[in-house]
Amino acid sequence: MTVPETGGLRTGAPRRTTGTGQFPVVAVVALGGGIGAAARYAASLWWPTSTGGFPWTTFWVNVVGCAVIGVFLVLITEAVAAHRLVRPFFGTGVLGGFTTFSTYAVDIRELSGAGRPGTALAYLAATLSAALFAVWVAATATRRVLLWRQR
Description:
The chain has helices at residues 23-46, 56-79, 86-98, 101-113, 117-150, and strands spanning 2-4, 14-16. The protein has 151 residues and is mainly alpha-helical.
């Protein structure tokens, strides 16, 4: 089956479709997201945050998840040829479900609403900074290890 392409350089040229569309990608993202969300929930049960306290569990889940994203993306884009569904399953699904920037936003709102705006601001800045730093350190370290192993 061919479908005319629209909006591209080859307007009107036929494009082959497989018939399955994006179902496999959506399915592995959903499966991975469930696994990641379950792991995050387990972490919140193992290390609960006291009411009005600094949300350390969410902070560390986000930092660790971002570090794993840094390692994972370097590995699958620079080191190994991965199946086309590995990235959506693990990167988008598992790690997307594990890291929780929506809970981060709720935590900030709750800290502010509880009269702790200083803690909320510190949490906002610390999580963002630590998560970005974790991605950078993990990706840089992974690249260095890969270069070292090639020697």
